[in-house]
Design brief:
With 459 residues, this protein is an alpha+beta fold. It contains 13 helices and 22 strands. It folds into three domains: 154 residues, no CATH class; 150 residues, no CATH class; 74 residues, no CATH class. It is globular. The two termini are 34 Å apart.
Length: 459
Amino acid sequence: MASNYPSHIILAASMFALALFPLSAANAQDKSPLPDYVIEEFGTPPPVPDGSLSDDLSAAMTVAFIDSMAQSSWQEPQKIALGEIVDAGDPRVAWLIADLMRFAPSRWLNAELADAAAQLLGIPAPDNNHWGVITDQLIAWDIPAPPDYLRFKRAIFTSLVPGWERIFIDGDIDWRLVSWGGVLIDDHAFEEALRSCSCIPAADNPKTSSAEDATWLKDEDIVFGIAVNGEARAYPRRIMEVREMVNDTLGGRDLGIPYCTLCGSAQAYFTDRLPAGVERPVLRTSGLLIRSNKVMYDVVTFSVFDTFLGNAVTGPLAEKNLKLTQASVVTTDWGTWKAKYPDTTVLVEALALGRDPDFRNGRDANGPIFPVGNVDPRLPVHEDIIGVVTASGKPVAFQRRTAIVALKRGDEIAFENVRLQLEAGGIKAVGEDGADLGSHEAFWFAWSQFHPQTELWDG
């Protein structure tokens, strides 16, 4: 979801806000041991304090970052304050330094901030990709957030994009992991016409055509297929890569369909038949990421959702404990999908906005382009898996290429109540009674980090 950001906002980003927290290592909190593979790749983390901040340190942080945000400048007082912050030696503050680095408009400022964060973490200062290296280290080591973290982080982010003011609030969300994806928030109202924006504009109730009329699609083009109550529709990847969110109605059911290009994951959530008093959520792209997974929200209530899990984590819908149910999404090619579903409809070419990107096989070919920290080493980071949650609540991942071979050979693939079946060139998970279980394809790194206790089918 990276994109060019408006120049006036990039220029404003030389402001920064931070809070620092000095405490003795003797007060370091107990933490669960890190996995061996994390220590092997990232080393041993430093001792981390767990107390409050001193007044002197808080004052230095205000000068170094909050004042600079307000003044849109980074001057000598900020440099002095940053030195005082480093001298305090609290690794937790590196989270806020990393947040500031994400918006730093110059390489020299990025390097200065990265050097400060590296000193706090006890690692060599990175030569390049300053923000990425520091953030990966923080995530992998699971360094705690400093006290009052959300208030400082909110000040940093909302000073640049005021539209995030209703996003950065308390909730069941780990704000340490939230970063900027490079675009503005999409906050247009339902079916509001957008002439242009610096966001990723969702498509609401998109126009469709018959398969016969979709002459612009090649048989080998990748589509995300959804079938609900006997009605089938194809969502071409070419369109989803520039829209990333569709609010649609299919088979008499309302759907919100996010596609995370960075995670290789298209999902479909039912957004109807909700508890009394809950208006249909209209899903949008916030412009934010969590470990390279898009952060989606409802433009009606500004409630943030966990994109992978479908539960509201902030706002009025979180207060109602709303969790959306998934429908299965089958990743396949257009030729196979329309052969299986000859009456399928498909989104019209105009929704691609005249662009034909191939993020899947280009931009992300060498690994995640945003920080993800440690990744479960059981599979390569970009291995395609089919993910589903069992009736007992156990997440399970099936390696797609291995499962395809086994299913074509006639093998049964089962895990608890889950059964895999071939579906229009892709794979779908169903229950023992054949009912749809809401599975979808994703990169391994994404599935495993949002389902850290996932089982992995070993074939």
